[in-house]
């Protein structure tokens, strides 16, 4: 039997980040992941799945010491263009308007995991179990017991569920979940464009859903995230590569010239999930285990990283005061704090989705007028971008500039 301070279930970016944060606080940490460990080879990122990191997430990774390596394999985009198909509606953002060097960074998801895991290898107070499943989870008044399928027993003061949208921890704790199907499927792929992307992130709102073109480090490579109504997504996935590329060029008005596919297409169903309770006893949820949102604004990764930064901050305060790091009042504070941020993001994403999928001509006209008006109001644009960039809001101390 192993005794530890905190057990983290889930070895994605959120779980690995939390493990590093707690290791820096000299806590004993065990991380359990049912999948394989990230590879520590020097192979270049393949950008099959990417995330847009904002300034708050950059600050977090700077604190953890992985930012220089992550930036070397990332695309720092300096401009953003958003428009609606067959409409005058458009808006643009630039880093110069915000007096920043970039609006965000497109990073390979697996590269983030690799760098975090590499850092964890240097922490003697962290033990990682990969390729193991949990056979039993029980908690008492003073600790949580985890039994792994390799017969290992782990006792900890606190257990954190960072195990994704289908969280085993959430299910075992019977934490109620609100969810609805967005009735959208996201198609992701990598494309090569005839014209350079000029470090500009682009998003076009189509009648069936948003399509994003995200710049990659190669000036002619982009990652696409095409979120479409499921029937339309199935039709697009059934096309051969030539027909799909033709549909893509038509949808974007060939804004980057002719394109070609550089990877297989992958499709992922989109569902909003929100746990109405994030903790029970000494068990608490973070990131996708607690909430998942539509990817149209690229905020999912950032939201989850702020969860773990907030939880680590509160745990650190408990530890510094000589208090129980699994105490219910502290976990409730975390839940109230991060629930408010998650709720705001869920509402905003749903408003965007519904607003841009409303088809009546009057709705289209109002969207156009709204975007053009916002584009001409510098103060309003700056306020919108400050929140999206992680420069405003109830942020953890660790990421405040």
UniProtKB/TrEMBL annotation:
Pfam families: FAD_binding_3. Residues 4-345 form the FAD-binding domain. It comes from the Bacteria. Keywords: FAD, Flavoprotein, Monooxygenase, Oxidoreductase. Pathway: Cofactor biosynthesis; ubiquinone biosynthesis. One of its GO terms (molecular function) is FAD binding. The keyword Oxidoreductase applies. InterPro entries: FAD-bd, FAD/NAD-bd_sf, Ubi_Hdrlase_CS, UbiH/COQ6, UbiH/COQ6_monooxygenase. Transmembrane segments: none annotated. NCBIfam families: Ubi-OHases. PANTHER family: UBIQUINONE BIOSYNTHESIS MONOOXYGENASE COQ6, MITOCHONDRIAL. Belongs to the UbiH/COQ6 family. This is 2-octaprenylphenol hydroxylase. It comes from Arsukibacterium tuosuense.
